[in-house]
Each structure stands twice: as C-alpha cells, then as structure tokens.
Design goal:
alpha/beta, about 220 residues, Arc Repressor Mutant, subunit A, 2 domains, four-stranded antiparallel β-sheet
Length: about 220
C-alpha cells in the first residue's frame, strides 16, 4: 500500500484530499504540527508528499529543501499561487509537479498515480494511469489531462490511446489496433478505426495536444 503525506494547513482541503486518497486505497497522514513536519515525515516514511506552499512557521519551499536533504521522495506542490516564478521555484527546488488551487480531485489522483508509477513500479497495472510528455491518461475514468485541462474519451478511444502510449517509441500497426479493439479485425470496416483515431485527435486538440498522433500511411500510427 502506497503511503501519502499531506502537508496542507487548510483542514477542509486536507480532509477532502485524505478522504479521496483513502477511497483509492492509499494510506495517508495529515500534518497536525506544522512546526515539526520533518519528524512526521521520517516516522511515516511516505512514498509521495502533497505539499502546500503557504504554511505556518515555514513555507513549503523550506520543508521541501529539508526533505530533499534526506530523500528523493516525489513531492507534488499544491498551492493557490499562480505565478510562473512560484512554479519554477517549486520545480527547481525539488518538486516533481505543481497543481494550482482550485483543482479537480480527479486530476490530483491522476497525477499521484502517474508519479507513483514512474517512481516505483512502471509495470504496476493497479495504477491505471499512463503518461506521455504532458499528457496523462486515466484509463479507469476514461479521461485525459493536460495541465489543468481535461477531456473524456469513449472506451475505444481510450484503448487506442493507451496502446499508443505503451508503444510510444514505435509504430503501432492498424491490424494490431483493430485486434485490440474488436477481437477479430476481419469483421470490422477499416474505415471504422480511422474514424475513431480522427475523433481522438480532435479531442486531444481541444486541450492543446495538437498533432500528437502521427499517421504512417498504409501502416499505422505512433505518438510524437
């Protein structure tokens, strides 16, 4: 069971985050003593930290620096600060991602799962999240996230995109995609796959992911 350390001084927000994470099967610890965050961290030994920036006593940047002296545990900053300077500082001082308040809980879960997958077990199929560059695919909820934007997919669109992500460094042939979608491609009009891919492309463009899927004429598709 993955353990997540919640460093957020707004009790309402931290309790909502904790409830959502618990429903997903994560073990959580919410900070109660903001003057001694490091002791809580070392005793809990989390797999990931959600860190607010505006905290009592010392800010999140300070605690991130302290934790980085001990560990490379993934840290996601969550903050109402929206300037590029704050976001750049968060990343350069050791943060792995940055979520701006207010945020979607679905987006938070997607980012948590994507980072856990990268950090601990990329082949862990219990984490139904795939990532390619700035795009995060939530397979269970049929959603794609890019920054703060999100779209919903059909099941077939999700299957196409998940196969392309899992094979992001190579061509995926049309016959392979059709087998994955419809079991026996001989019963499927070849144009049906094209229609699904084109719909997926249009949806990705809606969240700024233009020309992410490249067509290899007469063969198949690959991500760029």
């Amino acid at each position: 069971m993955y353990k997540i350390f919640i460093v957020e001084d707004d009790n309402t927000i931290s309790s909502i985050i904790e409830e959502k994470l618990n429903k997903w099967g994560y073990k959580t610890l919410r900070v109660s003593n903001f003057n001694d965050i490091l002791s809580n961290y070392t005793s809990f030994e989390p797999h990931l930290i959600l860190m607010d920036i505006n905290l009592p006593y010392y800010d999140g940047f300070y605690w991130c620096g302290k934790i980085r002296q001990l560990s490379n545990v993934p840290i996601i900053f969550i903050s109402s600060r929206d300037t590029d300077g704050d976001k750049i500082r968060a990343i350069t001082q050791g943060g792995d991602d940055y979520i701006e308040k207010p945020f979607s809980m679905d987006l938070l879960i997607a980012k948590v799962q994507a980072i856990l997958r990268r950090a601990y077990s990329y082949s862990d199929q219990t984490l139904n999240i795939l990532q390619h560059k700035d795009m995060i695919l939530d397979i269970e909820h049929l959603k794609v996230f890019c920054g703060e934007k999100e779209i919903e997919l059909t099941r077939n669109e999700c299957r196409i995109l998940s196969m392309l992500i899992r094979n992001h460094d190579r061509l995926v042939k049309r016959t392979r995609l059709m087998k994955a979608l419809w079991d026996d491609e001989s019963f499927v009009d070849d144009n049906t796959l094209t229609v699904n891919v084109n719909r997926l492309r249009r949806k990705l463009e809606m969240i700024g992911l233009k020309e992410y899927i490249k067509t290899i004429k007469g063969e198949g598709y690959r991500l760029i």
